[in-house]
Amino acid sequence: MTRTDPLDVPRPDARLHFGVFFQGVNHWTVWSAPESGSQIDPASFRRVAQTAERGLFDAFFLGEGLRLREVDGRIHDLDVAGRPDAVTQLAALAAVTRRIGLVSTSNSTYNEPADLARRLSGLDLLSEGRAGWNVVTTDNAWTGANFRRGGYLDHADRYRRAEEFLTVARALWDGWEDGAVAGSAGAPAWSRPGAVHRVRHRGPQFDVDLAPTLPRSPQGHPVIFQAGDSGDGRDFAARNADVIFSAHGGDFDDALAFAEDIRRRLRAVGRPEDDLRILPGTEIIIGATEEEAEEKKRWVRLQQVTPATALGIAGLLWGIDLSDRDADGPLPKEDPVVTENDGSFGSRRVADPRQVVDRWRAEAQAHGWSLRETVIALGPQRGHVGTPSGLADKFAHYARHGAVDGFNITPYLIPEGLDDIVDLLVPELQERGVYRTGYTGTTLREHLGLREPLTHRSAADRRQAG
Amino acid sequence: MSGPALHLAVELDGDGAHPAAWRRAAHSPDQLLTPRRVARVAAVAENAGFTLITLDDGVLPPGSSPDPVGRIGAVERAAFVAASTSTIGIAPVVPVTYAEPFHVSSQLASLDHISAGRAGWVVTEEELLGAARAWGREPVDGAEARARESRDGVTVARALWDSWEDDAVVRSVATSRYLDRDRLHYVDFTGETYAVKGPAIVPRPPQGQLVVLGRPERVPAGLLDVALVGGRDVAGVATAAAGAGTPRVFAEVEVALDTPDATGAERVADLERHAPWTDRGRLRHVGPAEQLVSLLAELSRHVDGVRLRPLVLDEDLPVLSRLVLPALSERRLVARPLPGTSLRSTLGLERPANRFAAPAALEEAR
């Protein structure tokens, strides 16, 4: 790619924002290599977070799963699993980092606002304004089996509950007026009388009445992340989120189309179109040369897609147990079966498997691929592969054309998977003027260049936005 | 039992045990909720040689409306403190009257990983109706119902901690298996009010089971490692301790020590002008450090440890640190935790076998 004149692009001043997603689940994390570290040792989390902070990342991001994944009623045993509670782990990281944002994925279905909003507030205070919440929804009874209420929520209501949850959470975060806490021990009361407001909310999902327990942090509210990709999910994000953690970052046209769709939705709800950051999740594989990068990618894919994993992924597509087949042999001859989705990992099957299987067969035949080679080539894909300078050119192009605001990077190795990104890619981006050379703020909201929390905007702001 | 005669725990919530403690604190109220304050007070306790920090909590703010005092969640504070200390045990207070036992279990297991096996759990109850309104749940009404929720919550958390065997992560390159699913177990708990399937989403805590502390009259003794007992005098404590039925017993002791600036009695009187220091039937020592040393020496004949609740942290912790712990250490009544030691080991408790692994091991031995 030739380097474009930075002034001859839609967003010449664009800056990329990087997050790191410590996944702790699924086959993208390589566990079989000698350098593959622990998925639970606090040292792994500290190492990744501190490396990201050295690389001036905006955020360190943890996922969440509230039930161990299963396939056909049996625990999925091929991938990394077993991770800490996100807010708890992040509170520990707040003590050993200074600037990086700390984002927890937490479920709005199997939590209650009084508890979760307070936990996030605590994280926000302990980190002095670096907390974020990636709002996820679940409705299935399979996950509900671990909770008091079981699977109580209708699929159609999952975003309604999330939105009402956010309404209550924001009221709690706004419950203490600024300066509510006394500035001296001689004050008449610990908190100024009348400055702490009870939250009474009665709606379809929540009927609560409580006094919020904490004042606001320096960033006002935790930054809201959202990752849903359905129409409902995108509308939810347009109304509520500060950051979208999207799945549209691998291809420029797809990323741009997604970003434009989100900007349309933002305008429709009266928000400025630069009110939200779009950070696609991505893997980044770096080599000194293109050949070396491709070679490394091949190694990574073979570690990720073991024969058993290839059979597992194909099994999900076909809807049948293929675990006794030969991954190095041809594709199964059977037709795929459409099975019912109970919410477990093993039931996340393609809507129209027939069409995908036909394509896999055609491609496998044309290239002479085995099943495993086919899964590697055509299975779930993501990520960018290249040299530091080539990737920097590409990412600068993405950012300057408004296709992304940055990336949430998923390292394939824990804990050292970020090292070459920080040591090799970040300097190339800085040289191109598309990446910060130092933190200029202290809060996550400042790192991301976000405005005040939505509930703090004046009516005038909102009109201007419209 | 080997080890020191007495283990010392200290409750570090807020500014101290007295509801008006903030008025005598060395910092302004708006510094209470800062990371510096949270880390500093824990560092003082660790450096003094305490075995264990506890951090009180509840869904409702301490301090009565309309004058609430801010409080960061105990689990979040505990995790933050765990990452900024190295030897002291850390036990957040977590009621399970309304909370989800699955979440509580995950949070506490995570805390044990974060602290490399220094975590405990103080089980309490949400007694006020306001807690139900905050959670948006039907009230758990009456002592019996609250005890049931505590019992079920602890039962579930403990089962989940065992739901991963220690060696469940096998990383078998030969078979492509990261996990051995035979070493993961559904807990299949069904109680009167809810059911939990499992397994946990967090691997087994380093200690196997966290150290669980609670009042023996509220939580079944079989679910506790350490009973926290009251009693207004040594005889009362001794009686409560004798009947606790738990592996270890700690006495609750409220302290207001003489400081270079004021006597304990003067400090209590000063704070009583603002609010009463409610009598909760616990031993209370108001006076000089030497008398507290004698009292603790006497208590060491009846209990395994003491949880101190200082009147004002900023005033009493320095006295505890400069006078009380050194004097007890001199008499070899207390010892500071050894680096790299789990809380269980420090307390002389064994690392428990895994309930799910046991049958397999037995079968093999057959």
TrEMBL record, chain A:
<feature type="binding site">
    <location>
        <position position="105"/>
    </location>
    <ligand>
        <name>FMN</name>
    </ligand>
</feature>
<feature type="domain" description="Luciferase-like">
    <location>
        <begin position="34"/>
        <end position="403"/>
    </location>
</feature>
<dbReference type="Pfam" id="PF00296">
    <property type="entry name" value="Bac_luciferase"/>
</dbReference>
<comment type="similarity">
    <text>Belongs to the NtaA/SnaA/DszA monooxygenase family.</text>
</comment>
<feature type="binding site">
    <location>
        <position position="159"/>
    </location>
    <ligand>
        <name>FMN</name>
    </ligand>
</feature>
<dbReference type="InterPro" id="IPR011251">
    <property type="entry name" value="Luciferase-like_dom"/>
</dbReference>
<dbReference type="InterPro" id="IPR051260">
    <property type="entry name" value="Diverse_substr_monoxygenases"/>
</dbReference>
<dbReference type="InterPro" id="IPR016215">
    <property type="entry name" value="NTA_MOA"/>
</dbReference>
<keyword id="KW-0288">FMN</keyword>
<keyword id="KW-0503">Monooxygenase</keyword>
<keyword id="KW-0285">Flavoprotein</keyword>
<keyword id="KW-0560">Oxidoreductase</keyword>
<dbReference type="InterPro" id="IPR036661">
    <property type="entry name" value="Luciferase-like_sf"/>
</dbReference>
<protein>
    <submittedName>
        <fullName>NtaA/DmoA family FMN-dependent monooxygenase</fullName>
        <ecNumber>1.14.-.-</ecNumber>
    </submittedName>
</protein>
<dbReference type="GO" id="GO:0004497">
    <property type="term" value="F:monooxygenase activity"/>
</dbReference>
<feature type="binding site">
    <location>
        <position position="155"/>
    </location>
    <ligand>
        <name>FMN</name>
    </ligand>
</feature>
<feature type="binding site">
    <location>
        <position position="230"/>
    </location>
    <ligand>
        <name>FMN</name>
    </ligand>
</feature>
<dbReference type="GO" id="GO:0016705">
    <property type="term" value="F:oxidoreductase activity, acting on paired donors, with incorporation or reduction of molecular oxygen"/>
</dbReference>
Automatic annotation (TrEMBL), chain B:
<keyword id="KW-0285">Flavoprotein</keyword>
<feature type="domain" description="Luciferase-like">
    <location>
        <begin position="27"/>
        <end position="215"/>
    </location>
</feature>
<protein>
    <submittedName>
        <fullName>LLM class flavin-dependent oxidoreductase</fullName>
    </submittedName>
</protein>
<keyword id="KW-0288">FMN</keyword>
<keyword id="KW-0560">Oxidoreductase</keyword>
<keyword id="KW-0503">Monooxygenase</keyword>
<dbReference type="GO" id="GO:0016705">
    <property type="term" value="F:oxidoreductase activity, acting on paired donors, with incorporation or reduction of molecular oxygen"/>
</dbReference>
<dbReference type="Pfam" id="PF00296">
    <property type="entry name" value="Bac_luciferase"/>
</dbReference>
<dbReference type="InterPro" id="IPR011251">
    <property type="entry name" value="Luciferase-like_dom"/>
</dbReference>
<dbReference type="InterPro" id="IPR051260">
    <property type="entry name" value="Diverse_substr_monoxygenases"/>
</dbReference>
<dbReference type="InterPro" id="IPR036661">
    <property type="entry name" value="Luciferase-like_sf"/>
</dbReference>
<dbReference type="GO" id="GO:0004497">
    <property type="term" value="F:monooxygenase activity"/>
</dbReference>
